[in-house]
Design brief:
Structural class: alpha+beta
CATH architecture: Roll
CATH class: Alpha Beta
Shape: globular
Distance between the termini: 64 Å
Oligomer: single chain
Radius of gyration: 19 Å
Amino acid sequence: MRHLLLIALAALVTMPCVAQPGEEKAVLAVIDRFFAAMSARDTAAMAQVITHDGVLYASQPGSGKPAHAMSHAGYLTNLAKGTERLLERIWDPIVRVDETIASVTAPYDFHVDGSFSHCGTDVFTLVKGPNGWIIAGGAYTMRKDGCTPSPLGPIKP
């Protein structure tokens, strides 16, 4: 019996760490806050969910152009200047958490003033600090053609 207990204990100790569902939910909550701040063009709320020194990279597959980089500071400036209504929706996110780093990958669609603009894949990297999770950077593809319709259905006006 003692031998079985030792084997069970050894199995538990050597099992890989798996992210707790609470951590995955906390990571996704930050992503939700990012999109809500973007839609509201709320730079104060956006500044709470992104690092000051992060970078976003946009790639247009098939364009032959390299990925375009924009600092988080530049993103905040552009967000404040714009007037269009923005809506970005993700679905089927894949969340990976390892201690104090996390990533989220998901397909998305993007709408401007209620009209479809483009789709692609979002990839966010997050870090966990004393105040919780924050977006350290990201990358996304942008395409207008060949988009799979969102399982979320049409947008609501």
